[in-house]
Design goal:
By secondary structure, this protein is mostly beta strands. The protein has a domain of about 50 residues. It is about 5% helix and about 40% strand. The chain has one helix and six strands. It has a six-stranded antiparallel β-sheet, with no helix packed on it. Strand 4 and strand 5 form a beta hairpin.
Length: about 80
């Protein structure tokens, strides 16, 4: 599992090539603030402060101290933006 801060993402201009079956998935950008210790996440190379695209309707959303966070499964992450 990963924790993403949706409030800290900056609007960046980028082009991302997605597989055909993923083109209709609505995505949101966010910043990773915590990474679980599961094998899939460890093998993926996802680190704190990575900017990622993730499925808009995936995971659980929460607010804390005026910031919006999302708790996601690794499979909800579409891409790491570099």
């Amino acid at each position: 599992m990963v924790l993403i801060n949706k409030s800290k993402s900056e609007n960046t201009s980028s082009i991302i090539m997605l597989e055909e079956e993923q083109k209709d998935i609505r995505t949101v950008e966010g910043v990773i603030v915590a990474v679980g210790d599961g094998k899939q996440v460890a093998d993926s190379g996802i680190l704190n402060n990575n900017i990622v695209l993730f499925k808009k309707f995936g995971g659980e959303e929460m607010e804390l101290d005026g910031e919006t966070y999302k708790i996601l499964e690794y499979s909800d992450i579409i891409a790491i933006i570099e």
